[in-house]
Design brief:
single chain; about 160 residues; mainly alpha; two-stranded antiparallel ribbon
């Protein structure tokens, strides 16, 4: 509601402005709507936020490759919980420590897969085809080649 009142005030100012001030007024309206004008961050939080963003970027590939990033994630979650007067410096240090821990990573241990359950009964009820939606979505709407779909009923150990 507060944003709407601010927007209305900006709109009244916008209707009686020159072109250059209209641009500023429109920007301020958009800032109020998006919440950017609600408060500016402190200089220290910009640094820790930058480190946090950098850490998130650096975690993507190791996690995709199945590497153990538990130390970095522990530092990440510890940094998220830090509060107090020196919180931004502590957060920045934790994020830097997490990034440093990404230099030497080991693969996650691979657990052997359990045996398939016994007593499984599959009943094929009916096949169905994926409709061709290319008229609506273009080439992305075509069903993938070689993919079959079926409705299946299953029973496992009399459940």
């Amino acid at each position: 509601m507060r944003n709407l009142k601010r927007l209305r005030g900006r709109w009244y100012a916008l209707t009686s402005c020159s072109r250059s001030t209209c641009v500023v007024a429109v920007w301020s309206c958009l800032a109020v709507i998006s919440g950017l004008a609600q408060g500016t961050s402190e200089p220290g939080s910009v640094v820790s936020a930058t480190y946090r963003h950098d850490l998130a970027y650096r975690l993507q590939q190791p996690m995709t490759d199945g590497l153990d990033v538990s130390v970095a994630l522990t530092d990440w979650f510890t940094a998220e919980k830090v509060t107090g007067p020196a919180a931004e410096a502590q957060k920045a240090n934790l994020y830097l420590h997490a990034m440093a821990s990404l230099k030497e990573l080991t693969p996650l241990p691979v657990e052997p897969l359990p045996a398939n359950p016994t007593g499984v009964t599959l009943t094929w009820l009916e096949p169905f085809t994926v409709p061709d939606l290319s008229a609506y979505f273009g080439p992305e709407g075509k069903p993938p080649a070689g993919v079959n779909a079926r409705i299946v009923e299953y029973e496992v150990d009399k459940l």
